[in-house]
Write a structure and sequence with these properties.
heterodimer; A: alpha/beta; Helix Hairpins; 6-stranded antiparallel sheet; 59% helix; elongated; B: 141 residues; mainly alpha; two-stranded antiparallel sheet; globular
Chain lengths: 651, 141
């Protein structure tokens, strides 16, 4: 497919009718535009004309009534818009028009509808033919490999995690792009024919006395399997429906994500305030209980000081008592001539020596009384139980708890002010959406489990049918002979197609891995990153030269890997088309930007990059692309809601 | 209230009272040291008896004179039974242990100290020398 001209009328910021002419020669074109000027809208104009959808953030569909160009953002008036794309494919020339217009027939009416028209080689195609042609050329499911932005690139990481819904959808898109459905549909068609053939085999067997019982068993087993197959289909549909519901609810919640986040934060903060209030009250109660002992804590310091004094006074009094007792003994020995301690006589020399001591008159009983008083005071003071440290610590903890509580309350108030700015009923709506989402997720899980179990039942029942059918064929009666042969042929054909699907899938994976690795080596600036390894989901991991997996790759490398995968899919796919990408360089450093620019012309022969000055250095891009740069365009601001598409770079 | 062996001595003071100024100071003190939600609704965690004990302890720690200053004025503010202020006689015993030479009725001294103590605390609260229980208990911090 090669694009020639895109013409837009009143689409987003493009007022009136404006056209974008693609360069006729193979190569890369650059469209320069500041943020908010309309690069994404141009990508959306292509999505719109090709697939009838306009995407916003998170790949959510934008309400078409808001797409038409308008003078005033707040205007509630729905405006018509249109896009026309001329392109060629497989030697034919096409003109595809898709308009969103009022079909009420009255001025100011409000019956807006989408009208597509496809002209092939000058002939208008009917609706069925139109849809078939479009689905063959560029099915919507594979649009992401041709029209993408940084956000879509980011989604490829999900291929690394098996079992995710997004990953499964991506895998299905990739296999569709690679042409696998041709084989899988053939396999499924043959399986359906095989089921019918076995039913016919059972009917034929019932006509013969010798095989009637076996025929009856086969019919019952086939009926059971058919019924289970219907259940599988119904459950599959239910799972898809529930998954869609979940996706839609998640999208709606995402569009309310700011308020949802605020509500979540408010709930957390409410709980935080409750917890801190409890803590504060508990500490206050404990402190109130302990504060009655404050007076003891206040007194504690002076009591400690006094105790030290009393200890010293007690020591001194003890010494005084010992001295007084000794003095009294000396006086008794001198006066009586007998030592009162050992009862020996004291001679005159010793008496003279003892009498030489000049003892002050201290009554030991007085000292004893002093000591008793000191010990009494000491005992009283020692009894003081001081809780000062605990009281002070509790007070510190309480103060901190009050500060924390006040902070949390302040944050809650600020959050509440923000929430007050939400439209009325926002909180209730979000709560209801969250409830509904929770319910749908539970139903989805339950239905998936039932589906898994039913599939297992079906596998067993199919085996039973198979065994009975084989048994009938082995009997080889004339009545079932032709049906047996038909069954045998279809069994062989089905087996062949099952093997073919597996073989084709393996080969596809191998070739995608090889091609992606080639492109990756061109793009990567890291010499040690050697190649890519593909998993069953088409997720790619980077391997070092020694075969070790690169863990926790950067978001820039996520894009490099995603670009490698897209390039590989383009090379391996029977479908080929242009690559049109919005802000693809945002996460890449200078070296990788250069590498991507060098690689792009080799991936496909029509590339349009929607970029802004900050993202890509123009001179660097011109140098890298050289002769592959086949055109430049820019978006010029006319007014806040009016952008003009102009040829050439904006200098 | 407990009646123990070291209960207040008989024959001494039966009631003791703050001065009027000290009563106001004591009220400010217990209001300042409120902690629970109940205390904010008019039910203080501490009561005037707690304030009386704290005032006495503070006066003792700060070494304020045991004798009444000339401007002490009449003790005709809030008054309490001695048994309420010092149910086990612990305060009296501590006073006597700290000041063994005092020759006055210990509860008359308590009556003096509780008023001068709460007034001193009130002054320090006013100039923020004391701004928490910690700074009341540990003055050097």
């Amino acid at each position: 497919m090669r694009l020639h001209v895109l013409e837009v009328t009143d689409f987003g910021p493009y007022r009136g009718t404006q056209s974008f002419s693609f360069a006729p020669e193979p190569g890369v074109e650059l469209l320069w535009g500041e943020n908010g000027r309309g690069k994404t809208s141009l990508l959306n104009a292509l999505r719109w004309v090709l697939f009838g959808v306009v995407l916003g953030r998170g790949s959510s569909r934008i309400d078409l009534s808001t797409v038409g160009n308008r003078d005033n953002e707040d205007s509630g008036t729905v405006r018509p818009f249109k896009a026309v794309l001329t392109f060629s494919h497989a030697g034919h020339f096409y003109k595809l028009t898709r308009a969103y217009r009022d079909e009420s027939g009255s001025p100011g009416g409000n019956d807006f509808r989408t009208r597509p028209i496809l002209v092939k080689d000058g002939n208008v195609l009917g609706p069925d033919e139109r849809e078939r042609e479009l689905a063959t050329m560029l099915p919507e499911q594979i649009a992401r490999f041709f029209l993408f932005d940084a956000e879509l690139l980011q989604e490829y990481e999900q291929l690394l995690a098996p079992g995710t819904d997004a990953g499964e959808k991506l895998k299905a898109s990739i296999e569709r792009l690679l042409g696998l459905p041709v084989l899988t549909q053939a396999r499924d068609d043959v399986a359906a024919h095989l089921n019918s053939a076995r039913t016919a085999q059972a009917k034929a067997a019932q006509k013969d006395q010798a095989t009637r019982a076996l025929g009856n068993d086969l019919q019952i087993a086939a009926d059971t399997a058919a019924s289970t197959r219907i259940n599988v289909d119904v459950l599959t549909e239910q799972v898809e429906g529930l998954q869609n519901d979940v996706n839609e609810l998640e999208k709606t919640l995402t569009s309310n994500s700011r308020y949802k986040t605020l509500l979540g934060e408010r709930n957390i903060l409410c709980e935080e305030v409750r917890r801190r209030t409890r803590l504060t009250n508990d500490l206050a109660d404990e402190l109130a209980g302990a504060a009655g002992g404050t007076w003891r804590a206040v007194l504690s310091m002076v009591v400690t000081r006094e105790l030290q004094l009393i200890e010293a006074q007690t020591d001194a009094a003890g010494q005084r008592l010992r001295d007084a007792v000794a003095a009294r003994s000396r006086a008794a020995a001198v006066s009586s001539g007998v030592c009162p301690t050992c009862q020996q006589s004291v001679d005159s020399v010793a008496a003279q020596e003892l009498g030489g001591h000049t003892d002050t008159e201290v009554d030991p009983d007085d000292v004893q009384a002093d000591l008793a008083q000191l010990r009494g005071r000491r005992d009283v003071l020692r009894r003081l139980r001081d809780d000062g440290e605990r009281i002070a610590r509790l007070e510190d903890d309480l103060t901190q708890a009050r500060v924390d509580l006040s902070d949390a309350e302040g944050q809650l108030r600020a959050l509440q002010v923000e929430l007050d700015g939400a439209p009325p009923g926002t909180a209730e709506n979000i709560a209801a959406l969250l409830d509904e989402l929770g319910g749908k997720r539970i139903s989805l899980d339950n239905t998936r489990q039932r589906l898994q179990k039913t599939r297992e039942d079906l596998r067993r029942e199919n085996q039973a049918v198979e065994k009975l059918s084989e048994k009938l064929a082995r009997l080889g009666t004339a009545s079932t002979g032709s049906e047996d042969r038909k069954v045998q042929m279809l069994v062989a054909l089905h087996g062949l197609l099952v093997a073919a699907v597996t073989e084709f899938r393996d080969r596809l994976r191998d070739s995608v891995e090889a091609e992606a690795s080639k492109v990756f080596r061109m793009l990567s600036a890291e010499q040690d990153y050697d190649r890519l390894r593909i998993n069953d989901q088409y997720g790619l991991t980077i391997l070092h030269a020694n075969g070790a997996e690169v863990l926790n790759r950067s978001s820039g490398y996520e894009h490099v890997v995603a670009l490698s995968l897209i390039a590989a899919l383009q090379r391996c796919s029977p479908m080929s088309g242009p690559i049109i990408t919005d802000s693809p360089f945002g996460r890449l450093d200078g070296t990788h930007k250069r590498h991507v620019l060098q690689a792009l012309p080799q991936i496909t022969d029509q590339v349009l990059l929607l970029v802004h000055d900050e993202e890509l250095d123009r001179q660097g891009a011109i140098d890298e692309l050289g002769a592959h740069l086949v055109g430049e365009h820019h978006l010029r601001k006319v007014s806040a809601r009016h952008t003009a598409i102009e040829s050439g770079a904006h200098l | 209230m407990t009646a123990e062996s070291s209960a207040p001595a008989r024959g001494g003071r039966v009631n003791i009272a703050f001065t009027k100024d000290a009563t106001d100071a004591a009220r400010r003190l217990i209001e300042r040291f409120t902690f629970t939600a109940a205390s904010k609704q008019g039910e203080p965690d501490l009561d005037l008896v707690d304030a009386a004990r704290i005032g006495t302890a503070f006066a003792l720690r700060e070494g304020l004179p045991l004798t009444r200053p000339d401007d002490f004025g009449p003790a005709n503010g809030s008054n309490f039974g001695v048994g309420s202020v010092d149910p086990g006689g612990e305060l009296r015993d501590l006073l006597q242990a700290l000041h063994p030479d005092m020759d006055e009725d210990p509860y008359r001294i308590v009556e003096t100290l509780m008023s001068v103590g709460v007034l001193a605390i009130d002054e320090r609260l006013a100039n923020s020398e004391i701004h928490s229980l910690r700074t009341l208990i540990f003055p050097e911090i």
